[in-house]
Amino acid sequence: MLIFFLIPFVDTVRRSFYDVRGVNFIGLESYVSVVNNMAFRLAAVNTARFVAICIPLLLVISLGVALLVRCVRPGGAVFKTTFLLPMAVPVASVVLLWQVLFNDGGLANSVLDFFGLPGVRFMGSGAAFWVLVATYLWKNTGYNMVLWLAGLDSISDTLYEAARVDGASKLQSFRYVTLPCLLPTVGIVSILSLLNSFKVFREAYLVAGAYPHDSMYLLQHLFNNWFVQLDISRLSAAATMLAAVLLVMILIIRRFLDEKD
Amino acid sequence: MKRGTKWLLCAGVMLLWLLASACGSGNGNGDTQGGEDTPHGGNAATPMGMGTGRYVELNITPPIHGRLMHIVAPDGTLLAFDEGLRNRYGSTDRGITWVQSPGPGAGTERFMDVQSVGLLPGGNLLVYLREEGMATVAPDGTTAHFPVPEIDAGIADGDEFILSFIQVLDDERVLLTYRVDWFARFMRENDGEFVQITGENETRTTQVRVGGTVTGGAGGMVFGMGDVTAIHDIATGQELTRLSHTDAITPMGANANGDVYTLMAHNLVRFGVEGEVYTLLNGTAFAFGAPLGNTVAVSSLPGGGFVAHVMKADVDEMALVSRLFKYIWDENATVDPDKILTIWSLEDNAVVRAAITEIWRLHPEADITLEIALSGDAGISATDAIRTLNTRLLSGRGPDIIILDGTPMESYAQRGMLLNLSPGVDTTGMYQNLLATYAAQGMYIVPTQFTIPMIVGTEAHLRYAATFHALVDAIVNGNPMPVMEAFTATAGGAFTLGGTPEAQRAMLGFTDLDELFHILWLANASAFIYDNRLDSAVLGEFFAALHAISDKYGLGQSAGDMMHSGGVFMATAGGGGGGVNRVSMVGGSLMQYMLQNTHLAAFEAGNIMLLRPFMQRDDSQLALFPGLVPGAWVPSTLVGVSADTRVADFAMAFVNAMLSMEVQRVNHGEGFPIIREAVAWQLEQINEQLAEMDGDLPPFELDLDAFIAQLQTPSLIEATLREMVWQSAERLAQGRLSVEGAVAEVEQNIRNYLAERS
Question: Which helix (DSSP H) or strand (DSSP E) does residue B686 occupy?
Fold first, then answer.
């Protein structure tokens, strides 16, 4: 923890107040420059939009899949494994799949063409963002499903028995028994989903390079490019700000869940 | 379990985990050349700069001017012969002193074709004589036929043999490497009968490398075929080891212990028995690694050390001359700690290597390491290499010298990572107009070579190229490109080696869109991307011109093709132009012009020697390619010194070496020299060479200084920007985008790139 996380983090914070060589103290100059930087603003907005859309969607879809898998008897294990398969697919293969599907002359455009619809530049238009969202959901639904299943398994059957005796419908059981009991799981799944959302950069970078379409230009693209440019002071400032925002978000989630408890 | 025990157990597991992680980090990123050797086979080898002692290079060339042949006798005696075996030079003290005596060829021309000699146990020589076959030669010049059935039979059939290697193994066996009709095979003599021992490599190939010295009849015989080297047992011919390698290998030597030494990627390496490769000597510090050197033989010396026979281009004599170098381990040699220098370059660069040779000559006590990030099978991208470099720079363990081509050099300079070179670098001989851009507020980046986008044609046609727009109009209103079916003339095709009739010639020719884009980019990019902003109106002009030319010549159809067919290679490096081991590519535009299919040719000029043949057509003249910026030029081999270097003075001395006449006057194939005197010297040498070849040839008169004086604007050489614009240009040429659409696409793509830097 100390070697791999805390010391590098403290060094990053320190560098955000110094010039690139780490010799001269420059105060908040890097932070001001970052905040005024158009690329940072775009990347921050895109990243926030991505998180705001993906995390709720992922939570809902993966919970739905978990409930579905749990209901299926027999064969639940087969479905469970199937939904987990995307996690086992290497990034390089995912990238290949993207290219086959979403290239200008790819499979998706061939299908559109077959139905007489105009082609879409998936990687060179706003559609790129939604491709990224779909990839994230496809890749992470299985993992979240497993987390939800663990949460669902921890709910005692006696609660459902009591609800049924009291005349509750299945929907009411879900609303008044399942959901409240899943609240602790919601916190964990949300935080993990948030952190996993940053990993989608690998796919985005490998497919579209360092400068993708505006709609999928994320903070990691900016960080990566600033590192190549050796713009370490601004990179450190932006990273520190991002860490602070993430910390606040996690604290809010925790606070919300604590209140619910 | 007690709490303390649990805690200890947990800590132990954590430590194990950390250790495993550290071990798993492996070999690093492989961005440096070479490795380390361990003492082996009597040749102690310690990495340079570590501990005491190191290999030293001694020039032991006997007083032979020109090409020589050398032999290391089993007892360590060195023998050398000049051309035609006229003189014999012997040294019993390993090259310190030589004793000259008349050779067997004294007073006769009979041995003038001999290229390789072997030493027979009685003192006679074994040579190959044209149209006669193998022969023994006594010291007095008398010869006797040495029967080699296959060679004898071949000569009887009229075959031409080239004996490139003769090694006498013992009384009864010799090892020959020869080529017949440009194919090669290895043979050995076994009890009077020659047996081919090439194993499964029986296929004739031109890829065979010359085998090495085998002393005392022991050891293995080695030969390489392309990227594979096999080691055979000398007695049975059985293959012992097979080595795969990505870098080409040159002549090899083996010693009595079976150690095999060879040159790989400019370094002297030893092959281990398991196929591992140990770098013994880093070529950056020695003559065999010099860019204009061609090592023709490596021999190990009995008792340790090596001899390398290097053919070098003598820039003063404009000829190839032999040099014998001896490498011995000197226990007392030390490295000056103030002269330990690390040089980083994304790609190999002949100017840098030449400067290393020069600085090594001036400072033999120096230790210089050249790191080439994209060399060999490192398998990393340029961006990965730059990330690694940045990490090292940030940790304060970066290289002292950075060759900045392909790096974010302006960012390095702006962020204080480079040293101001103004106080220590002598720029008086440089073209000051070229330096001006880099020396405005301190000199952090120094270009040492450069190229110029140029256009060649007759004076009448060059009038059409007065401005960019005039040239585009002339192209659009001119003839289409002659049909180029193939390089051979066809009955129906208009493309012939004899040229197209003048009235049907196109104004300018390009083989593909890439070539057109390249020249337009060099001449114009600085007009629409400057001061970290994009000028969309000028970009529109650029795209409109590209679109018009592309449509005229049908280049859009070739866009996206993987194969570019327009270039040919020409050997062009050396002194004023003489030299052997560097090639330059000639673009399709120039080829079309030379073949008289077009009135003009556009190209990136960076090689004085190459200019002459293109100006031989009619009354050709040169001009700067007219662009949207005045006087575009392309800086190359840009050098900077890390601000964190601990040897600033020596680093500046290295930059001065790069700018010295000794380095600049040589045509390295990387561009024009940035030193005025060197340009003049190269021109002078070309004319001297012409005069020697044929006194009637008119001198090559070219006032390059006049062109260079017009240069004002460095071209944009940032690869990412170029790629972004290229993508839209390609779609524009293919008709998938309009000019407005291409401009909009570039605006969109480039926005974040520019914003990041604001």
Answer: helix B676-693
Per-residue pLDDT reduced to its tens digit, B184-215: 444 444 333 333 433 333 333 333 343 443 33
Of B417, B644, B749, the CB nearest to A211: B749
Q: Do B386 and A228 touch (CB under 8 A)?
A: yes
User: Could you tell me which residues come within 8 angstroms of residue A48 by beta carbon, excluding any fewer than 6 positions away?
Assistant: none
A interface test, pick of B391, B752, B754 with most A CB neighbours within 10 Å: B752
Which pTM was predicted? 0.77
Identity of the amino acid at A95:
V
Contact flag A38-B758 (C-beta cutoff 8 Å) = yes
- Nearest residue on chain B to A212, judged by CA atoms? B749
| Dihedral (Cα; A169, A172, A178, A183), 10-degree rounding | 180
Nearest chain A residue to B731 by CA distance is A104
Cross-chain residue pair B720–A211, CB shorter than 8 Å: yes
Q: Tokens 């009968």 map to which residue?
A: B193
Q: Radius of gyration (Cα) for chain A, nearest Å?
A: 22
Place of tokens 């032979």: B64
Least confident among A240-254, B29-43, B337-351, B616-630 = B29-43
Identify which of B18, B724, B755 has the shortest CB distance to residue A38. B755
From the list A38, A124, A230, the residue facing B393 with the nearest CB is A230
Give residues with Cβ within 8 angstroms of B15, minimum separation 6.
none
The string of pLDDT tens digits covering residues B643-677 is 999 999 999 999 999 999 999 988 888 899 999 99
- Specify whether the CB–CB gap between B713 and B687 falls below 8 A: no
Instruction: Express each pLDDT in B13-58 by its tens digit.
Output: 556 554 544 443 333 333 333 333 332 222 333 333 344 677 888 8
